[in-house]
Write a structure and sequence with these properties.
The complex is a heterodimer.
Chain A: E1 2-4, H1 11-37, H2 39-50, E2 51-56, E3 63-64, E4 70-82, H3 91-105, H4 109-118, E5 126-129, H5 134-143, E6 150-160, H6 163-170, E7 172-175, H7 178-184, E8 194-198, H8 199-203, H9 205-209, E9 213-219, E10 225-232, E11 239-242, H10 246-263, E12 268-273, E13 280-286, H11 291-295, H12 300-308, H13 317-320, H14 330-339, E14 349-350, E15 354-357, E16 360-363, E17 372-373, H15 375-381, H16 384-394, H17 396-405, H18 427-437, H19 446-453, H20 463-474, E18 478-480, E19 485-489, E20 495-498, E21 503-506, H21 511-526, E22 545-551, E23 563-570, E24 577-583, H22 589-606, H23 608-612
Parallel strand pairs in A: 3-11
Antiparallel strand pairs in A: 2-9, 3-4, 4-5, 4-6, 7-8, 9-10, 11-19, 12-13, 12-24, 14-17, 15-16, 18-21, 19-20, 22-23, 23-24
Chain B: H1 7-27, H2 29-51, H3 57-78, E1 80-82, E2 85-91, E3 94-96, H4 98-114, H5 122-141, H6 145-162, H7 166-186, H8 189-199, H9 208-222, H10 233-236, H11 248-281, H12 285-309, H13 327-345, E4 349-353, E5 356-359
Antiparallel strand pairs in B: 1-2, 2-3, 4-5
The chains are: A alpha+beta, B mainly alpha.
Chain lengths: 616, 370
């Protein structure tokens, strides 16, 4: 019988077998460790790797004018984002890819590297640049297959209409900086989130923002979403209908810029308000800036240019610009004198070229004696010396109190952030100042009371405060809260809120006395001697009241030009508009501010039906 | 039917090939398709190698050794670079990885050299070192650390199994022990980086450490029973890098779990046992060394590959035999195991008469299994 030989196991083979068994046992132990011991932990790590909670951004609410003309909306646009985990593992390849992308997207290469370093999760896409131009997104789209780790997402881009006229009203949204994020993260904001930074965008952020949703998305290693595991859909922001009339706003913007240009200066502001309810129909500060620049992610250089522009385009003069009111203040001095009983409606006082007080001479704007006059005419011709006397007899404390009653010295509560309070000086204020500075011989100079009577001294007001002050005179003594919002609607179209007139207070001036002041303003507009003579033309067929102002600033005796003011309301019996125009450094009010107001009033009355028409 | 081929080896092999194809099917249909072609060609070569009398290779050994060196030099000059190493070349439209083929050629050459004498004295040790060094250095220069490790293991393993003196082996081991701490300084940039990342994967989670972390997550996600064939998410969604080659085990372990992993490990252990057994029945010293060396190569590859998948050994690009995609490697291992069958088929016969088992002096005619 022949058969195959049995195996001959030598010692070395057996020793080798032992090594194999040892190593296989080690691998077995390790496999048990990973697949049983650490299974839960590693499976969870796998889920964390594959599944990402992505934010479903809520559409920001649209901003319309009072008739439904869209002013701020969301246009489809492309954003470039980066998934760090999908970038090339090779450092050299990664670097050259980042350099290429930086060039294509128009961002600085180091900032791309920074984004990568700061990425909290390698599997979470980071926005590199939103609001890519059409050329940029096309150029990137063509090369995308060669750019692993980058993707183009369609994200809404905030777009604003007619920036020159609406810039300051609408404001802009911008990416949060780290401080802002730290403040807002508890409200659900994300690290590279945007928020309103100025204008209505900032003031109505809570309404416009909506509520972001989320989705747990399983992605493959290249970052492509494969399926959605769970989600909470976003809720769009509310739509806001402003009280602004787009056509009027544009007209006001144009007239104001023309006025500023012909005065040879840089800046100004104009407001049109309905004195019945405090709704602003136009609100313009010039020069303006383009909010679209911010929405697309403004470059550091462009931002620096805006900051360093001597005309300060980012500065909203209508709310935050503070100027002495000059002669536009005289209605308050008149009301104070009448209400305190220092003068009567028929008291007649002289209007000399100057008066002497405490060793100083206080001059009238006219270098000649204008004769005897009552308070109505004194307002109409803007007699300084008349009001020096009235102010002196009323006294600084009482005059200051009346000024505050008309809204001076406190910032109006307003939807757009940034409204300033201005300043009302008096002895008490002076004492506080003196205590703070400890300057020797510091005290209230009684002569200051006189100059305060014509809107000088340390008085400061803003165009918005002026608008509400004129409205209070026009509407018979109710100081209203200004508003720029007429209606808020939910994404479903339901009206969530409608503006209501919000009285702040009633001015403590009797209707009879206020009527005297109003009559003075009417004579200013309509009497042959009134300073508002430009309104006495063929085209303007409506009545009303006005007051010019030419405010000195930078201290008396300086050569700085005057700030030109013009305040106006119309019609006389049931006023429906009040206008305030300021031309910064524009000289005499009737020279530079009044022509702007005339054009605005003309526009208003020729488009009145449209402007006041029912809202869509 | 006296001389039977090793059916157990063939079945184990078949099981491994099927598991490999299943895993490739799950991750890449393209790689699966090309691997199917490789399997078909490989089975033919396997049978041919078994039929071929391995002893006829012994005189050809010097030429085979020269061919191995020629292949390694050619790839260095004309090859393609992949993952920082020059290891591929294109022959007649097919991608060929010469270092895989070189493994078999060097094995045959070294076994043939050692088989010239019955013992392995100092002279043999020295000569083996001289023969083994050029191919090792050539692959290290590519740089292909994995294949270099295989060559080094083959040298050591052959010396051990060929019966080299203990003192010599001990001093070689001592030398290795001294060299290992120096290794980071001798390695090339990306190899050194890989070693450092093995020690601390979180160092570079985007780059090379990524592979390790993702492989470990995939293996661990498998659990005891696995996520199921075609349902391993880490593998399916592409998180595992090199998922059809170096890290195919991670894909397999995620889908088939601990049970699958142990099945695979068990199949490899059985295969190693059958190859070792072939060495134990070999009719001559060349056959013994050929089989012993084949076992060393298989063992090294399996341990290094699975080891790096579970984070026990540094990342060095070594495919998992029969599982990883790669036709050069598949064909090489199938031919290698075919030669092992050739040894089994030519084992000596004994007569088992009343006097017990007596070796026959004449080996008789060889018959192939039907």
């Amino acid at each position: 019988m022949v058969e195959a030989a049995r195996p001959r196991w030598n010692g070395r083979l057996l020793a080798g077998g032992l090594v194999v068994l040892l190593v296989v046992s080690t691998l077995t132990v390790r496999l048990v460790q990973l697949q049983v011991g650490q299974h839960q932990q590693l499976a969870a790590a796998g889920v964390e790797t594959r599944v990402h909670r992505v934010v479903l951004e809520a559409d920001r609410g649209v901003v319309y004018d009072r008739h439904g003309v869209q002013l701020a909306g969301n246009a489809p646009a492309w954003a470039l984002s980066m998934l760090p985990a999908a970038l090339p593992a090779n450092a050299v390849a990664r670097q050259s890819e980042l350099a290429q992308v930086a060039r294509l997207a128009g961002v600085a290469e180091p900032s791309l590297g920074q984004l990568l370093l700061k990425a909290p999760d390698l599997y979470l896409p980071v926005t590199v640049k939103s609001g890519l131009s059409a050329e940029q997104s096309q150029a990137i789209a063509e090369r995308l297959p060669q750019l692993p780790g980058f993707q183009l997402d369609q994200t809404p881009l905030r777009t604003y209409a007619d920036w020159q006229d609406f810039g300051h009203v609408l404001g802009y949204t911008n990416r949060l900086d780290s401080d802002e994020y730290a403040r807002l993260k508890n409200l659900g904001y994300l690290p590279d989130d945007t928020a309103g930074k100025a204008g209505v965008e900032a003031g109505l952020e809570v309404l416009l923002r909506g509520r972001n949703g989320w989705a747990d998305v399983e992605t493959n290693a290249a970052g492509l979403p494969m399926r959605t595991l769970a989600q909470d859909p976003p809720v769009a922001g509310d739509s806001v209908y402003l009280s602004i009339d787009a056509g009027l706003q544009q007209a006001v913007g144009q007239y104001l810029r023309e006025g500023i240009q012909s005065a040879g200066v840089r800046a100004g502001a104009a407001i049109v308000v309905d004195p019945r309810d405090g709704e602003l129909l136009a609100l313009v500060s010039a020069p303006s800036y383009d909010p679209n620049q911010f929405a697309a992610g403004i470059s550091a250089a462009a931002y620096q240019r805006l900051l360093q522009d001597p005309a300060k385009p980012l500065y909203d003069r209508a709310l935050a610009g503070l100027y002495p009111p000059g002669s536009t203040f005289k209605m308050i001095t008149a009301a104070a004198g009448l209400q305190d009983g220092k003068i009567g409606a028929d008291s007649v006082l002289p209007c000399p070229a100057g008066i002497t007080y405490g060793g100083w001479t206080y001059r009238n704007w006219a270098g000649y004696d204008m004769g005897q006059m009552n308070v109505e005419k004194a307002i109409a011709v803007s007699c300084d010396t008349f009001f020096y006397r009235v102010a002196d007899s009323v006294g600084d404390m009482s005059l200051a109190a009346y000024a505050r009653d008309f809204g001076y010295g406190s910032a109006p509560i307003f939807e757009i952030p940034g409204a300033q309070a201005g300043l009302v000086p008096d002895e008490a204020w002076q004492a506080a100042q003196c205590q703070a500075t400890e300057a020797p011989g510091c005290r209230w100079n009684p002569g200051e009371t006189l100059t305060m009577g014509i809107g000088q001294s340390a008085l400061l007001t803003s165009p918005l405060i002026q608008a509400m002050y004129v409205s209070a005179i026009a509407n018979g003594g109710t100081l209203l809260q200004p508003t720029v919002v007429s209606q808020v609607r939910t994404p479903g179209g339901r009206v969530a809120a409608t503006a209501q007139a919000k009285p702040v207070s009633t001015v403590p001036v009797s209707p009879a006395n206020l009527e005297v002041v109003r009559e003075g303003m009417r004579q200013c507009l309509q009497a042959p001697y009134g300073t508002g003579f430009l309104f006495r033309n063929d085209r303007f067929k409506y009545d009303g009241g006005c007051k010019t102002g030419s405010a000195q600033y930078g201290g008396s005796g300086t050569d700085l030009p005057l700030h030109a003011w013009f305040t106006f309301f119309s019609p006389y019996d049931h006023p429906e508009i009040a206008i305030v125009v300021l031309v910064e450094g524009g000289g005499e009010g009737h020279d530079t501010a009044e022509p702007v107001a005339v054009k605005i009033a003309d526009y208003y009355y020729s488009h009145r039906a449209q402007i006041l028409g029912t809202q869509s | 039917m006296v001389r039977r081929a090793d059916l157990t080896q063939a079945l184990t092999l078949a099981a491994l090939v099927v598991l490999g194809l299943m895993t490739l099917f799950s991750t890449s249909r393209a790689d699966f398709a090309s691997q199917v072609g490789g399997v078909a060609a490989g089975l033919l070569l396997y049978v041919a190698a078994a039929a071929f009398d391995y002893r006829r290779l012994q005189p050809a050994a010097p030429y085979l050794y020269g061919l191995a060196l020629l292949l390694l030099i050619t790839v260095e000059v004309a090859g393609h670079t992949a993952y920082g190493a020059q290891r591929w070349m294109r022959v007649a439209g097919l991608q060929v990885e010469p270092s895989e083929i070189a493994k078999l050629l060097v094995l045959v050459a070294l076994a043939a050299f050692l088989a010239r004498r019955e013992t392995a004295g100092r002279r043999e040790v020295l000569m083996l070192g001289v023969l083994g060094l050029p191919p090792t250095l050539l692959v290290l220069y590519q740089p292909d650390l994995g294949t270099a490790i295989v060559f080094a293991s083959l040298l050591l393993g052959l010396l051990f199994l060929a019966g080299a003196p203990r003192l010599v082996l001990a001093s070689i081991l001592a030398g290795v022990a001294v060299a290992v701490p120096l290794l980071p300084h001798l390695l090339r940039g990306y190899q050194r980086q890989r070693l450092q990342i093995f020690l601390d994967p979180s160092q570079d989670p985007l780059g090379a450490g990524y592979n390790l972390i993702q492989a470990r997550i995939a293996v661990g996600s498998g659990g005891i029973f696995g996520q199921g064939w075609l349902h391993g998410l880490q593998g399916q969604l592409g998180y595992i890098p090199e998922r059809t080659s170096d890290f195919v085990f991670a894909v397999y372990a995620e889908e088939f779990g601990l049970l699958g992993s142990l099945l695979l490990l068990g199949l490899f252990t059985i295969l190693l046992y059958r190859v070792a057994r072939a060495a134990a029945v070999a009719p001559d010293r060349f056959g013994f060394l050929l089989c012993a060396g084949a076992a060393v190569i298989l063992f090294t590859q399996v341990v290094q590959n699975i080891g790096m998948n579970v984070g026990l050994t540094p990342i060095a690009g070594i495919p998992l035999p029969f599982i990883s995609h790669g036709r050069s490697a598949l064909l090489t291992y199938l031919v290698m195991l075919g030669l092992v069958q050739s040894v089994v088929l030519r084992r000596p016969l004994v007569s088992s008469g009343p006097a017990g088992r007596v070796p026959l002096t004449e080996s008789g005619t060889i018959r192939l299994p039907v």
